[in-house]
Task: inverse folding
């Protein structure tokens, strides 16, 4: 089955769900059905899109190119390549799971508005991964912000206002700097009348970007992506946002929104600014390894489950930036696999922390314990996610981290060399085992509290939410080659553009 | 011998577990705790202080907006004078050596 304009359809379907959502807003059952159906259709559509994708080709596919603001050279240009084609189904799956879980009773207040926020959020997230015009990308990047602001701010915990404001101000500070850079790129892209923001055309005219220009523009793009990812030292919004966000919000925040940062580096910053990449690379590599060790170290002393998973995300995202910036195929493939793995595994971890909180109303590790005796199903699933997060071979976490470390060992273009930074990052894997297993032991084993004895194990809806994530975690861990075959050709092209010897640092 | 010092050392596996616990685990836990405190107070503290600065700065600047038109007119006249003097000085060449 081939569907024309499938990427546009992917952007339109969530919007189509908004109308029935508004019409049936007074009937909670109908609201749930509309939201679940819409996200399920979107998920199915994204799988059709994946099936239409020609594996092995490096360039953009399923491209749609329409003039949008012709006088400014801004186009509606969408397409997917090997890097984005897997991130889109990951997004639609996690959105479907979030909506399905939330319809199980986790959200009681203003349900139609909650579901509408998720549908709008889905447009923004899919849009970020398919946009090939910088202006369109920027619009989608900001479109993700507004619904998440509402999701944390309305359905969040006690400190939701502080947290959501912090999340928005941090992200906005970065993305507005990026907007300035986008305008600068537009001005530098050509002469009056031939200026453009579309990625393929910019790649053709990137020779016009001087070393000084690339230094500043890469910094501006990098700041936006570094805050979104987040990289140390711009990460402190993340633990606050996660602790206050409702479960579904945390799943999407960790599972998808963080990837927009890593994806942005690969899609725009690296190929467009090879000189800027060279100039900033040592800084980013050092910050990545710091993030891996620091995030893991701080995770070990967390008392709150959600904060622990949030800080572990900082460490995991350190592997993504490290893999991207060692500029070789192993590292970059590892980085993209790590993004997918983190989406499924950390999405799963937040889902299970949420399920547990829904029953016990406790998130502090010290208040829990002994749940394994009561919840065999929960313990099994949660245990698999915990082991995948540590990087157990056979599960998805291992492949990404291993390839990133392999790429780092081979890399020499950084002070002290890859043979210093690689082993340093590997220490983070050991720390991951420390904080994850220690947490699992304290939460799941030991004596069970009297109050938790009667709490039920997973409900059917919760099992349905968890199973696809578990299956993908195992599949990606056992047969990573399926994903690598899709990702690698496009990544190699990005790396060729980023390491083009025709672009050398030449300050005037 | 069940009570000898050698027995005590052997039955406790040369106290290696205790050594690890006391020297390494405790030390690391303290170090990681310090890093978390650094995270909250220094990195996040800096971010929060920036926000506080914006709020306080805005609060101070707010006082300029008195709503009294006379004050605004006075500021406009004062600004005009500054521009005139500066332009006059520029025209007279005092900024060029």
Result:
């Amino acid at each position: 089955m081939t569907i024309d304009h499938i990427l546009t359809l992917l952007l339109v379907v969530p919007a189509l769900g908004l109308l029935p959502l508004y019409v049936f807003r007074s009937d909670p059952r109908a609201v749930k059905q509309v939201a679940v159906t819409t996200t399920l259709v979107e998920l199915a559509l994204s799988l059709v899109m994946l099936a239409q994708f020609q594996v092995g080709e490096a360039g953009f596919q399923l491209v749609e190119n329409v003039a949008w603001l012709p006088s400014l050279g801004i186009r509606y240009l969408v397409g997917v390549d090997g890097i984005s084609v897997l991130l889109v189904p990951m997004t639609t799956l996690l959105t479907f799971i979030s909506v399905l879980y939330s319809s199980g009773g986790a959200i009681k207040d203003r349900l139609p508005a909650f579901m509408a926020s998720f549908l709008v959020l889905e447009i923004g997230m899919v849009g970020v991964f398919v946009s090939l015009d910088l202006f369109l990308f920027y619009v989608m990047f900001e479109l993700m912000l507004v619904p998440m602001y509402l999701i944390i701010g309305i359905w969040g915990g006690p400190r939701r206002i502080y947290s959501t404001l912090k999340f928005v101000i941090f992200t906005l500070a970065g993305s507005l700097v990026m907007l300035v850079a986008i305008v600068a790129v537009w001005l530098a892209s050509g002469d009056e009348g031939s200026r453009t923001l579309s990625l393929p055309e910019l790649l053709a005219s990137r020779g016009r970007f001087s070393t000084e220009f690339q230094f500043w523009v890469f910094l501006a793009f990098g700041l936006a992506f570094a805050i979104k990812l987040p990289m140390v030292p711009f990460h402190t919004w993340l633990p606050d946002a996660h602790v206050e966000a409702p479960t579904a919000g945390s799943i999407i925040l960790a599972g998808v929104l963080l990837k927009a940062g890593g994806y942005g580096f690969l899609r725009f910053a690296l190929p467009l600014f090879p000189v800027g990449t060279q100039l900033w690379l040592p800084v980013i590599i050092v910050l990545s390894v710091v993030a891996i060790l620091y995030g893991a170290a701080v995770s070990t002393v967390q008392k709150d489950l959600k904060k622990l998973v949030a800080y572990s995300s900082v460490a995991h995202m350190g592997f993504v930036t490290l893999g991207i910036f060692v500029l070789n195929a192993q590292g970059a493939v590892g980085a993209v696999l790590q993004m997918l793995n983190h989406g499924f595994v950390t999405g799963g971890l937040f889902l299970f922390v949420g399920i547990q909180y829904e029953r016990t109303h406790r998130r502090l590790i010290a208040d829990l314990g002994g749940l394994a005796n009561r919840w065999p199903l929960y313990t099994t699933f949660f245990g698999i996610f915990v082991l995948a997060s540590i990087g157990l071979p056979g599960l998805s976490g291992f492949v990404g981290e291993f390839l990133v470390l392999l790429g780092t060992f081979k890399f020499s273009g950084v002070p002290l060399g890859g043979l210093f930074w690689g082993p340093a990052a590997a220490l983070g894997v050991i720390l991951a085992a420390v904080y994850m297993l220690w947490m699992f032991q304290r939460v799941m084993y030991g004596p069970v509290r009297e109050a938790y004895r009667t709490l039920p194990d997973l409900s059917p809806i919760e099992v349905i939410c968890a199973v696809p994530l578990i299956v993908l975690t195992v599949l990606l861990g056992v047969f990573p080659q399926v994903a690598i075959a899709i990702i690698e050709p496009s990544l190699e092209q990005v790396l060729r553009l980023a390491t083009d010897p025709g672009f050398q640092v030449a300050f005037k | 011998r069940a009570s000898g010092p050698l027995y005590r050392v052997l039955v406790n596996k040369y106290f290696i577990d205790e050594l690890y616990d006391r020297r390494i685990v405790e030390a690391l836990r303290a170090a990681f705790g310090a890093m978390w405190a650094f995270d909250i107070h220094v990195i996040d503290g800096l971010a929060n202080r920036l926000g506080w600065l914006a709020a306080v700065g805005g609060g101070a600047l707010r006082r300029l907006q008195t709503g009294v038109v006379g004050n605004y007119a006075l500021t406009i006249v004062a600004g005009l004078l500054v521009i005139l003097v500066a332009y006059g000085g520029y025209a007279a060449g005092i900024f060029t050596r």
Q: What stands out?
A: The two ends of chain B are 99 Å apart (CA to CA). The interface with chain A takes residues 28-29, 31-33, 35-36, 39, 43-44, 47, 51 of chain B (CB under 8 Å).
